[in-house]
Every structure is written in C-alpha cells, then in structure tokens.
Amino acid sequence: MSRLINATHDQSLRSWVESANQENTDFPIQNLPFGVFRPQGSAEPSRIGVAIGDQILDLSLCCEVGLFQELPQQLQVACAAPNLNQLMAMGSRASSALRDRLSNLLRSDKQNPSPEREILTPMSQAELLLPTNIGDYTDFYASIFHATNVGKLFRPDNPLLPNYKYVPIAYHGRASSIVTSGTSIKRPSGQRKDPSASTPSFEPSQSLDYEMEVGLFVGAGNELGQPIAIDKAEEHIFGLCLVNDWSARDLQAWEYQPLGPFLAKSFATTISPWVITLEALAPFRCGAFQRAEGDPLPLPYLSSPLDAQLGAIDITVEVLLRSAQMREQRMEPFRLSLASFKQMYWTLAQMLTHHSSNGCNLRPGDLLASGTVSGAEEGSQGCLLEITQRGSKSVKLPTGELRSFLLDGDEVFLRGYCEKEGYARVGFGECWGMVSYTK
Ligand code: CA
C-alpha cells in the first residue's frame, strides 16, 4: 500500500499556504511530514505538527477546532499526543487516512478552514523536538561500498567479511544520546592508541567524523517471538529521516574488536526533525540494488519479488561542511559528497525483517538507521574516514583550510530530497550539528 500512488501525490495540487507552492521547498503539499514542536522559548507541552512550506500545521489545534471530526476517535487522540509514538503504533492504514485528510485540508481550493484560530505556526518561531520517544536504536551497515572502503582501510587483504552478502549487519546503538538537528556536539574523550604507542591514553578524540545515513521509524510493532515477514515489512515502517552517526574513529579503532562499536558512537547521534512518511515517497520507489554476478541471492526469508522490484528509494543525499572561518566570511557550506540511497545493498524491508527474524520485538517509534550511504563513484562517500582514507589525505575547503577529520567549530549539514519528472519534489529538511569548542 505504501508504494501506491494516489491523489495526494498529484503534482498539480496547490496549497493555500503560499510558501508550500514554491518550486524548491522541501515541504510542498505532496510531502506532509510529521514532527513534534513547541513555540520557541516556551515551556509549553510539545505537540505534533505537519510541515507545509515554511509553516507548521498544529494537529492539536486541528483537533480542538473540530477539523478532524470525521477521523476515528483513536486517531484524533493520537494527533493530540505530545509525540508520534501513538500515531506510529496505529499502522500505515491510519497514517494514510490522516494524510488524505491533511491533503484535503491544505488544498488551495479550500480556504484556511479555521480563520478564528491560528492553526499554523511559522517554522522560524518553533523549536523542533525529537519526533518520538525512541525506545531502541539500531544502526545497520547496508552500503557495500562503505563496508568495502572501510574494510580496506582496516583489513587491506580481507576488506569484505564473508557474512556481508548474507547478513544485514548491524549493532545496537544508544537511544538516550539521539539529539535533534541543531544540537551542538561535544567532542568525546576516550581511549585511543596510536600504532606507534605501546599503551593507550585517555584524551579527546583526534579523529571525529560524521556518517551520512537514512533512518526509519518503526510504525506498528510486532509481538515478542513473532517475526515480521518480508512482504509485510513495509507495513511496519512509518517513515524516514536523516541520521548523522557521529563517530570517533580513533576510539573506534581501539575498541571495536571483538564486539563492535561502543563509546566511539554512543556520545551523540543527530536526526532531522521531520519524519517523511513512506507513502509520501511512493513516487520515488525503484528496484533493489542489482547484485554483482556471482553474488549469492538473499536467503528466502529476505527474498521477495515485490521487494526486488520496488524495495529501494531514490533519495539523493548530500553532506556539506562549514568551518568557523567560512562562517566568519559568510560563505555557504561546502559540499563534501552526494549519493543516492538506492545504492544500498539491503533494502529497508530486508533490514527490518532481519531485525525481527529471531523474534525480537520492534516497538512503535524505534529508530533503525541504514548505515553510511556511500556510492561507487568519486564524491559519493558518506564519511571523512572514506574520503580522506583514514586521515591520510585531506579535503581542501574554499578558504584553503584542510580537513582530515572534524575540528572544533565545524558545522555538518545533511540534506536529502527526491526529484522525479511528473512529481513534486519531496525534501527531508536539514540535519545539522556543530562540533562545539573543547574547553
Ligand atoms: Ca553508522
């Protein structure tokens, strides 16, 4: 169902919110992503909003003034909640009914249906919060290009481990340190050991990096002991966001064997505040990654003709950097990479199915991230570790400054968007963070 095109995707739709009709907006009426906000500088309880142009439609107020009366009572209650967990728990059919109502409400052939109450808040006057109470966070490793590039740096003669083409590899991340876009990132201290040193030291990381990823929020969950079948997997995905998995490479290199990443990752993960529903992304679906000849087929529990045909999504993702010096000189952020999410070796459905295949229960609002999105071409590598070959090369910024890894005061911007002839552009907004100055 989430892959089907319907009236809400019609390119000719216009909104009475004028800024939503501008050509390059991330949030036209065809997008309608969900987030959680409160008026800036207030201590008011958080509420659910929908991004439309440069405005936020306040769903609590829509409920109050009776604009959702035709929706089921349970759905109205979920719209008035302080976060998206309840709405996500109701599954894709409920969120689809809500999307249909929102699309109708915001169309330009209507007028603002509630002139007596201001149901819009300008985005510039809102504080955007985490969209859900994230119970669990898992980070995959689904780009074979990223896995191969990183593998080469750490194990030159054995870059891709033999399980990679069978198992969607992941580790359990830390939910408590997930922050929303705009939160400054404190450089972590930890154990690191230079190859020439005989013992490790404890000090601030000297190899701070970002990872450009796409995350999915779990919608309806599954019961403990009840795996999700591959062809049902997308019914359990509410929507997507951008994820920056900040990584301290020196801490990672010393700690990662034998159990994988731990403190090198758990100090902070930034996500973009708007959740783009899978339904909004329907026009941009495409065939799953073509495996190279000789690669094994996925095992039966991860195989599905429908997933092979339409399991991927063509989302263009970009990473940009702005140094303190660039900021002082009022320069635009500089693009470090551009890639497409359709290049991932594993689909979202395969990741979610694999995660639940042992009976592990996923819960509404859980976050599953894809792993670094990297492509095969030059300029499509989603982290500095790959771009600078573990710091042995450097990137030259427009100011002439060189970067192997992030310095204090550097800002990292992730952007994502979908474009296709015949459809409105759908954007993800921004996932932004600055490395704060180490005291
Ligand atoms: Ca990662």
Would you mind describing this structure in some detail?
The chain is an alpha+beta fold and 439 residues long. It folds into 2 domains: 7-129, Fumarylacetoacetase, N-terminal domain (SH3 type barrels, Roll); 137-434, Fumarylacetoacetate hydrolase, domain 2. Helix content is 17%, strand content 24%. The strands form 7 sheets. Strands 6, 7, 8, 12, 13, 15, 16 and 21 form an 8-stranded mixed beta sheet that branches. Strand 1 (34-39) and strand 2 form a beta hairpin. The N and C termini lie far apart (52 Å). Calcium ion is lined by residues 139, 211, 213, 245, 371-372.
- The beta-strand count equals 25
Shape: globular
On the 0-100 scale, what is the average pLDDT? 96
CATH top level label of the largest domain: Alpha Beta
The CATH topology label of the largest domain is: Fumarylacetoacetate hydrolase, domain 2
Can you give the helix content as a percent range? 10-25%
Bound molecules: calcium ion
Could you say what the CATH architecture of the largest domain is? Alpha-Beta Complex
- Estimate what percentage of residues fall within beta strands: 15-25%
Output the number of helix runs.
Answer: 10
Distance between the termini: 52 Å
Q: Structural class from helices and strands? A: alpha+beta
Count the domains. Answer: 2
Q: Biggest sheet, open or closed, and with what strands and sense?
A: 8 strands, mixed
Radius of gyration, taken over Cα atoms and rounded to an integer in Å: 22 Å
State the low-pLDDT regions, or none. none
CATH superfamily of the largest domain: Fumarylacetoacetase-like, C-terminal domain
